[in-house]
Amino acid sequence: MGRIRILSDQVANQIAAGEVVERPASVVKELLENSLDAGATRIRIEVEAGGRKLIRIVDNGHGMGKDDALLAFERHATSKLRTSDDLLSIATLGFRGEALPSIASVARLSLETRAAEDDSGTHIEIAGGNILTVEDAGLPIGTTIAIRDLFFNTPARRKFLKSESTELSHIAALVTHYALAHFNRHFELHSTTQALLVAPAVASAGDRLFQIFGRDTAALMIPTTAEMDFTRAGLPEPPPWKRELDYEAPDPGFLRISGFVSKPELQKLNRNSVYVFVNQRLIRDRLVLHALTEAYRNIIPPSSFPVVLLFLEMPPHEVDVNVHPAKTEVRFRQPAFVHDFIRDTVRTTLMQARPAASFASALNGAPYNDAHSSLLIDVSPLPGAPSDPVFDPRRAPEGFPQSDHDPSHEDSAPFFLAPIPVPESPGRLDFSAAATLAVGYEQEAAHAPEQVDYGKDRVIENPSLYSLSTLKPLGQIRDSFILAVNDEGLWIVDQHVAHERILFEKILRERNTEQIQRQRLLMPLLIDLMPDQMVAFARIAEELERQGFEAEPFGPRTLAVKSAPVGLEGRELEQMIEDLLSVEDRIGQTENADTRARRIAASMACHAAVKINMPLERSKIDWLLAELGKTEYPTSCPHGRPIALRYSHKEIEKAFQRT
């Protein structure tokens, strides 16, 4: 007898279950997607013992006849595909026909279903893949599936399940986010002791966000919407000699983005609060996660992550969902186009909104530990996962380079052996009231809206930094923070990071236009380096030249700096060079040209900016606030620290018990 045998259907189903059914949340995901594909408008999920003992899903979808109900438990039986061409344009959440037989092979399953055209329904019971009962029954239109004793016949798999509360939190997060994606449907999630979620159908995604998470969380989210047609991607058509006589150019379709992104003050320690839906399918895609990280670069610290709820809509043929057993990963047909559009849309949304951080919220909780305002549960509901105005995309910047955090030395002692003075130039920092240095882009027109409408009687104040131009400075607090007022309330501005943001954008603008002003040192500055730092210098030497430096090796372990940008000199210049060359080798090797340019610009701005404990004259303060208002993003410095905090007029009135 030969060595190779064909596995029995039961064993094959259990192997498939190992890929599809990892935990109770995996079962809920598969069955919930089937209910949505069936057109259900009301879905009720009941869970006992974290899903180990019972998972019951009741929907009012179109249901099934008796023959279809029996056929649904055969491997690769599906109503959603007909030919192999259908795999190129999958428009449903489920399609492979493996979910039901795989689940039935590792649990005790009960199915009750009835189609609208049938007089009676069908009741089926299956245990461990074996059909026990098939009978007619009087049932309402729709489907009810009950899964009991999950992994009862595979005890090894059952041992790998976590505690009941952990498994329940995975299910709760999963149902919550499908409820957010399908706001026009009614969702309920019940455990043995309580109703975890009751979300009736609403008119918009904003209403659903407000409905589930409340006013406080909704106030920390910014709505975003964008649309672009795929013709801009520039994919070539078949050459004329390969076209049929009746060939017609296919409709490229549109890429649409909608959803909510968090203000910079709402941050997380991991990516578990980033949830993305592609054609209403919950996914975990590295390309999208990278695009969101790039969108927030130089806005929040590189060690923290935003909270994002994003919905992508595109033609089915533009995305392949058949690349992962649990359908949690996808492949885009035009990945670079999708990546750049997501990045530019989110970045431009933040730039246009210019959200102002609340002084009170900054005092109540650190940005890394925001449990009271967290949008999402910090567990991944994805089985197998690791840890309406339309905005005009033509106004988005062409690209947003990247940056990484580098150490700063804000209180370093000055270097007394300074080079000889050079004549004033446009590149030197000028604090005079008549300074005409152009920073940022002129904002003549629209200001960000002051309020966001999340539905009837749900208007939430959305303060922005467009009002920086109206600030009237009062003075300094310990020569470190600028105190200013306007009609909105009291503002406290960190003078160092404010100047750092001004210089950062100025350096990048002058670099791109090759207008950086440099000064030649009286004597070359010699800096002793370690061997790995010399290697790092060779990697960034070209970019340093573009940003105004003239430096070259002077021996095997010495660097000679002959020229530097205006505004950097002495000890600050030496420390900046050392900081740039001390970056981790892993970061230096993986960063691209834009990332490197922004990292160097951020370090230059940090070392050239005014320091704390430095008194400023009134004219200098006026200049600083005026130039800050002209920057593209005055919310945070290039390293992610907040620039200005607002103590609103309402908060002041409340503190004095006048409301």
Automatic annotation (TrEMBL):
GO terms for cellular component: mismatch repair complex. One of its GO terms (biological process) is mismatch repair. The lineage of its organism: Bacteria, Pseudomonadati, Acidobacteriota, Terriglobia, Terriglobales. PROSITE patterns: DNA_MISMATCH_REPAIR_1. NCBIfam families: mutl. This is DNA mismatch repair protein MutL. This protein is involved in the repair of mismatches in DNA. It is required for dam-dependent methyl-directed DNA mismatch repair. May act as a 'molecular matchmaker', a protein that promotes the formation of a stable complex between two or more DNA-binding proteins in an ATP-dependent manner without itself being part of a final effector complex. Residues 387-411 are annotated as: Disordered.
